Amino acid sequence: MKATMEWEQKCRRCGRCCFEKLDLDGEILYTDEPCEYLDPATRLCSVYPQRHTARPGCAPLTPEHLAMGILPADCPYVDGLPNYRAPRLRET
Question: What pTM was estimated for this model as a whole?
Answer without folding.
Answer: 0.79
